[in-house]
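A reminder from the course coordinator: this example appears on the midterm review sheet, so study it carefully.

Given structure:
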């Protein structure tokens, strides 16, 4: 099947993160088996989901080294979005292919699967590996389990290309993200008797303001990396709730915030400034009103930044294949996890992040053609090189 046909098939399999991805994984597994390749699945312990990993061996049969082509199989929901056509039926209009996941990121997976027969029939000096994950959109959960098994199995690779939509412009670095949930516990009272209560919403508001102050300090004083569209680490409170009635001083308030850190500026260091304010300023004031007042901050999902540069072997290879300048982005991908597992990674795939997650998500035919040419050149680059690196 060509890239277009594969994309039609992949889009028709609804892999919204809350659903199983096994239909897609089994379809891909069966297609690879027909090529004589036997992928292994890494099943989720708690959900009907699996990651898939396949190695297309080198000409001499070797399975170590080479390049991993990686993509996530899940897509974000379409609930409430005004789509002009069925999001799970690939629809072509004016050079664009519409469907949920067309850009993020089934277009890349389709192109890789379309090229797999060629990599198998005409192997290079280095293997090509396929890595498909679940639950990327809800915290890069599948890739963690997949990489754990990759390491356990002793699989080594020279580098990984994560095909998130970058309009085929190589992304050598991205920020990390860390989520935190905060619960402020005060004391309830009738709202006519304020001295008897400890107002959790008011203290939460002070803490949220302080998080904004830390964000403002990052913006004013850095560290900076002008390679990013937002060239400093950011903090933002994005959910909050609290209180139970208009005339009751609230005992509880909770909110969630995120830190998006530049590589080299760990989230833990930024979070320490939030915790310090809680311990040194906020809690003493609360406890003067209510001795058992508490502020509990629980870390949630965290994905490491991708700390790459244009001089690594994988970056040089991908920059030459794509013939484009490198870029840095604020959004998170699984590439940071590959790097953390000791596999140098870079992000490059068809479609624009502008279209991802929205109604009428699309990838252009031109982008898919660029990706096809990229994968063709990758095969040649791996085949034409001698043993001992692709630098
Ligand atoms: Zn994605």
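Designed residues:
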């Amino acid at each position: 099947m060509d890239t277009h046909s594969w994309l039609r098939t992949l889009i028709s399999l609804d892999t919204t993160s809350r659903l199983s991805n096994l239909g897609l994984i089994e379809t891909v597994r069966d297609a690879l088996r027909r090529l004589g390749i036997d992928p292994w699945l890494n099943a989720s312990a708690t959900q009907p989901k699996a990651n898939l990993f396949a190695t297309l061996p080198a000409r001499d049969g070797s399975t170590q080294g080479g390049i991993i082509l990686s993509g996530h199989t899940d897509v974000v929901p379409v609930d409430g979005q005004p789509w002009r056509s069925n999001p799970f039926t690939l629809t072509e209009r004016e050079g664009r292919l519409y469907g949920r996941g067309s850009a993020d990121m089934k277009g890349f997976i389709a192109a890789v699967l379309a090229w797999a027969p060629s990599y198998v029939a005409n192997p290079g000096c280095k293997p090509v590996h396929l890595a498909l994950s679940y639950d990327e959109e809800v915290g890069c959960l599948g890739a963690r389990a997949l990489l754990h098994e990759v390491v356990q199995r002793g699989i080594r690779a020279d580098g990984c290309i994560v095909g998130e939509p970058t309009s085929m412009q190589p992304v050598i670095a991205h920020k990390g993200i860390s989520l935190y949930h905060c619960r402020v516990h005060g004391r309830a009272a009738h709202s006519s008797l304020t001295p008897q209560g400890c107002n959790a919403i008011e203290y939460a508001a002070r803490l949220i303001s302080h998080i904004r102050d830390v964000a403002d300090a990052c913006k004013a004083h850095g560290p900076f990396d002008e390679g990013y569209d937002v060239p400093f680490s950011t903090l933002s409170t994005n959910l909050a709730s609290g209180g139970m009635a208009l005339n009751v001083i609230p005992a509880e308030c909770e909110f969630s915030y995120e830190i998006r850190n530049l590589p080299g500026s760990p989230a833990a260091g930024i979070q320490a400034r939030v915790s310090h304010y809680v311990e040194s300023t906020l809690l003493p004031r609360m406890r003067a009103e209510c001795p058992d007042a508490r502020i509990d901050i629980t870390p949630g999902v965290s994905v490491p930044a991708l700390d790459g540069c244009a001089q690594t072997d994988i970056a040089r290879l991908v920059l030459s294949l794509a013939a484009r300048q490198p870029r840095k982005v604020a959004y998170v991908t699984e590439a940071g996890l590959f790097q953390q597992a000791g596999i140098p990674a870079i992000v490059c795939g068809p479609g624009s992040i502008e279209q991802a997650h929205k109604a009428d998500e699309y990838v252009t035919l031109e982008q898919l053609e660029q990706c096809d040419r990229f994968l063709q050149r990758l095969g040649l680059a791996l085949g034409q090189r001698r043993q001992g690196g692709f630098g």
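The chain is about 35% helix and 25% strand. Residues 267-289 form the longest helix (23 residues).
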